[in-house]
Amino acid sequence: MPEFCPKCGAMVADGTERCPACGARVQPRVLDEKTGFTWADFFNYSLYTLLVLIAAIAIPALIAFLCLHFILR
Ligand SMILES: [Zn+2]
Fold first, then answer.
1. Which residues contact residue 28 at a Cβ distance below 8 angstroms, ignoring those fewer than 6 apart?
2. How far apart are CA 15 and CA 28, in angstroms?
């Protein structure tokens, strides 16, 4: 699948890092053909999930700790 330079719009061959016309850096897209899955999406999703999980665990744990701390004093 050919890509196009984001700067000048010239067609860039697969696997080429720089545009042959203007020399701009072309980001090689790592895209699964079937699902449209990209590793960037995966890492963003993982990071978001991780943050939500940490919040979901840390906030009740903090509340429980504070309750116990004040009740069992
Ligand atoms: Zn270009």
1. 3, 15, 17
2. 7
Domain boundaries along the sequence of the chain: 1-30, 33-73
H or E element that contains 62: helix 39-71
CA of 12 to the centre of ligand 1 (A): 8
- pTM value is 0.37
Q: How far apart are CA 11 and CA 26, in angstroms?
A: 10
Q: How far is the CA of 4 from the centre of ligand 1 (A)?
A: 8
Q: List per-residue pLDDT tens for the chain, 73 residues long.
A: 678 888 899 988 887 888 999 999 887 665 555 666 677 887 888 889 999 999 999 999 999 999 999 987 6
